[in-house]
Amino acid sequence: MATLILPGEWIKNWEKSGKHEFVQLCKELTEKTDHGNETKDIQAALYEVCSQVVQGNLKIDLVSAVLGEMMELRDDLPSILADVFCILDLETGALEEKNKRDHYTHLVGACLSFVPEAILKERLDPETLESLGLIKQAHQFNQKIVKIKTKLFYKQQKFNLLREENEGYAKLITELGQDLSGNITSNLVLESIKSLIGCFNLDPNRVLDIILEVYESRSEQDEFFLSLIKSYMCEPITLCHILGFKFKFYQEPNEETPKSLYHIAAALLNHKLIELEDLYVHLMPVDATIVEEHKREISEAKQIARKLVTVVLPSEKSEDKEKEKEKEEEKNEKPPDNQKLGLLEALLRIGDWHHAQSIMDQMPSFYATSHKAIALALCQLVHLTMEPLYRRAGVPKGAKGCALQPLQNKRAPQPTESFEDLRKNTFSMLCYLGPHLSHDPILFAKIVRLGKSFMKEYQTDSRPEVKDKMEILLSCFLSIADQVLLPSLSLMECNACMSEELWGLFKLFPYQHRYRLYGQWKNETYSGHPLLVKVKAQTVERARYIMKRLTKENIKQSGRQIGKLSHSNPTILFDYMLSQIQWYDNLIVPVVDSLKYLTSLNYDVLAYCIIEALANPEKEKMKHDDTTLSLWLQSLASLCGAVFRKYPIELAGLLQYVTNQLKAGKSFDLLILKEVVQKMAGIEITDEMTSEQLEAMTGGEQLKAEGGYFGQIRNTKKSSQRLKDALLDHELALPLCLLMAQQRNGVVFLEGGEKHLKLVGHLYDQCHDTLVQFGGFLASNLSTEDYIKRVPSIDVLCNQFHTPHDAAFFLSRPMYAHQILSKYEELKKAEKGNRQQQKVTKYVAACEQVMTPVHEAVMSLHPARVWDDLRPQFYATFWSLTMYDLAVPHAAYEREVNKLKAQIKAIEENSEIPLNKKKKEKERCTALQEKLQEEEKKQMEHVQRVLHRLKLEKDSWLLTKSTKNETITKFLQLCLFPRCIFSSIDAVYCARFVELVHQQKTPNFCTLLCYDRVFSAIIYTVASCTENESHRYGRFLCCMLETVTRWHSNRAVYEKECANYPGFLTIFRATGFDGGNKADQLDYENFRHVVHKWHYMLTKASVHCLETGDYTHIRNILIVLTKILPCYPKVLNLGQALEARVHKICLEEKDKRPDLYALAMGYSGRLKSQKVHMVPENEFHHKDQPARSATPASQQNGPGSAGKPAANTSKTEEGGFEDGDRVKDKSQGTTKPVNKANSTAAKVTTSNGNGALNSTKAVKDDKEKSGKEKKEKKEKTPGSTPETKAENRREKQRDERAGKEERLLREGKEKTPKADRKLDEKSGKDDKAKAGNGEPVEPARDAVKESKNKEKGDRNAAIATLKSPNPRSDSAESERDHKRRKLDSHSSPSHSSSVKDSSNELKDPATKDHAVNDREASQESKRRKDENGTNSSKNSQSTSPSCDSPLTPEKEKTKRSKSSSKEKAESVKAERASSGGKKESRHEKSEKKEKRDSAGGKEEKKHHKSSDKHR
CB–CB of 274/268 below 8 Å? Predict the structure, then answer.
């Protein structure tokens, strides 16, 4: 109480000023009007003064005088002072100090004059009163109080039992039960009741109780009884107590509270006659019990779920049954009603949402609505609330709804008139309802229809002022879908109509919203509600039952069961099904077929479930070995393709998922896109195509569909249209292409850091294949406008988006074709001319218009020096054309047409097919046949136009400002190699394009050099390929070899297609100061030698790769060899060498690397089957033709001159093979011994090319070299030699012969040159005899050491072996020097007639003029070496023949011989052994020496002139 503390100065100076100040303060306090606070302040002031008296600080008489004066200030001041005395009485009574108590009693005694005794007797203790003398004895006073209280409170004054005053109560009941339909009002009845109470002395509370009883029995008369109770009742708490007693009466077991009681309680609450808080405490059960019950229900539900999911043993089953029986017995004793829920239901029935909401808030979520009666009551209230809005906006056209009567209760929620009104009460009611909306499917449908109506309004109304409201409403509808609609669908019994109705709303949401809802539904909704927990477990159990029995035979029955289960709980079902498919991929086909009974909503949920399964972070996308993708991912990808093709499921989510994964630098999921495009569009990507399929793929779309794929994927029109629409609507077409193109390198350089090389290759292939497939789909399905609008120009693609060039052109190619075609059609319409020539001209004009900007754009893709050789026009033409433009696959068209004819015939002969079906099938086949024939005709016209265009363009394709070698290098580097490994069709295209460029007689294009470069250096190309690229590279080589084999196999074909073509032009270089170069064609026989050389090079590269032991090398070369098997190997000994190496691989890899073993075994088997088609070397090319011994002493012309062009192929004016090889050797490090052999051999030839080393010689040396390598292998690893036993026996015989020759050679070293010549003649005879028997000439055994160095050694050995084909001695060297000096002082006549490439030279060797001396040969050798030195230093830039000092060649030779004296010595032996196979003896040559001396001068002069002219 002491909130006011009087200042100490007042107390000290009480008489002077304190008293006056205190009185003044009290006056101020009494004048205040502060809503009762002034009383407290006065009490505080009085308490302060009195407490000071009690403590002895103030005198009693002074204070009592002041208090007496103050009594006049207020009427109630004596009462306030009595209250203060009461407080002080309690305080002093508890104190031990007696003086304080005395002070208190004296003060009160002094105030008795102005404080009435009655008030003090009320407030003070009897003991205090006794001490004051106000009462005599405290004890008697207490007894008197008890008597009075008993009389007042416990003695009954009125009758409250019916039997005590039955007449009065009978009249009361009659009064209340009368007919109220007339003019009876509550006021009249109230007056009668009052009279009865007064007359019969009835207890008013008992009367109220009877009024409630009658109201309960006549609950329909709400208005009358409520107004009566309102008029009759005085205190709400009394009414609450009476109602509470009524509810308490029914709180016994097996008792049921009547609904009428709930109704009157609800009505009283609704009219605010009682308070809910007052009544709530009287209701049972208590809230704590309800919470416990709810928890128990959830735990029981989870336990049931666990039992359904887990496998139970028989012993456990019996125990569980016993426990369940006990529980059932316990449940038999029915607990008392939940009165709170009964009251809640009654409140909802009358529309009192406010009080109902308060009760539900006291309980756990959805506990109240889990009781069906309450759920239905709330549903009914929602029906009534949203009725007007539903009638306006939700009723479908043509539907007749039955209108609902609104509630009479004015306090009920207001009916909604607009969507905005739904936010007031309706949405909150639905949220309280939750999953239990399932009890009222009609209300479910109404809400969904309102949602649809709102979404249409939301999508059309773009006013900014309503935008915010609309967004809020949208979020409300999404919340309702999440918390109410989807959970309710789970509890509905397979209601397919509701599922479809809900899809009508959901399809208006973007897929992001839908997937969010499905995610909540699947992962969170089922855990919060006991019913949903049980439903989830039951669904999983049922799904397991169905999936165990699902087979191809019972798809229809199982599909119906799956459909039935999916209508309500699709997320749970699909989750289980997908988990099964990830384990057992053989389920995919039956599962996909069984999904035909699903609703649209279920298909959409399935798409979400698939994406969620793919994105599962807990699952590894690679197998444990980290080399292959996991099987679960492959199974899901396969399922995606099948499901999305067969059923109308939206693809946007899946495509966006793949795009997002690519953005994140992950390419695993491209497998999904690959499968989807393959299944939906029918575009298949495989490198295992047969040649027939590949041929069909070069035709039109119809031919591709019919003959280009393994599986005939029909009816893809609708599915491909859906895929196209999804890509265009969500703008994913170009981003996916660009991301895939960029990701190809990302796989290697970003993703591939820690991954296994095999996996990196697989991912790269997958990324590339998907890009090709996807690009093909876009090209064939997008309209011209759509495609052109989305694909930027080539320079933007490459420079801005950093797309690799091959991918950029791949994407742009269809655009160019579209543009050219549309421009061509435009020009045709503009000028009407039907002549073929006019059409072609217009086509060329259209090409120029479209491609000119492209030519300008490609200039920025490469440095300026590139365009010195290749024109941008040639580059763009190569990259923009396809196989469709180059050739018509007539055989493929014919094959497919014949198939269709056979089908028609089979249909006609089949008597089981019904007639109408027969007719349909025949019509289909006939229509296809006509389409194919029309397509073939169209393609023929197109190809003719394209070929004409190329014919016009070809002259300006290649500029060759540098060498032809450079041109070919750039062509291979920028065009051929990037494209030949892009796709199988591109591989074929590259080979055919090279052939076409050759056939078109393109200036400056050296066909021979191009083929040579392709076949000579495949090691690094093969090593850098992925697995699929190896397939394509192999196919490219196969097509190139096919062309070469065709030319090789038939002289007539060669003469027709190659003889007079510039691509086969070779340059023969002359020596001498006035000589020149002469161009000539490569003849047929020498072409065959060159082809043998290529085969040898392929063998060498293959053997090298197989012997590296590296996984990638071995795998790739085996793939390439398998692909080129139809054309290689054709030579028996090369085939045997390959077979031996492959056999070795089979043995080594059997237990180490099974995939290599399988590849090797497959190739080995096929190679053996090809053996019957292989021929000995002398049948492949005439190695046993007349040959000469080209000694330094005397060189010959004549019989061996048939071999000259082969040597000349390696010395074209611009560097030829020699330069090309040198560039490759220098820049790439590739080993090409035979190539170098040709070029080095050329150094000792005469000016007209009829020199010592012709192609025959080169091939022979190649053969010898391979023999040496075999022997070396034998010596190094005798135990593991790969040759067969028969081969070993032959080798032994050869070794014996070689041993004899070697002994002879050793003896001959000490002899004179004359003795050398004799030995050469003898060994030549031996070699000739061997060649006649079909045996290869074996080199000297010491020469085996040449091949000991792996690559460099091989190269050096080959150079050493082939550089000097004849034995050299000191005497021979001095003789040559003597002749060179002789040549310097004498001019010699021309012998140009010997330059001609004539077959007569072979027939009559004796008639030929052999007039070239050794000095010319040394000059030629010197010039060659000088030029080669220049070439190697200038990166294959050719120079003019050198005319320096004749000593230079000798110095170079000396230098080279010093660098490897051992090799030289061995090579000398080898050459001596092999040089004996010449027809003419040295004696014959020396006789013709003078003729050659005289002819030398003229030949030199002529060659100088021709070389100047050529330059």
Answer: yes
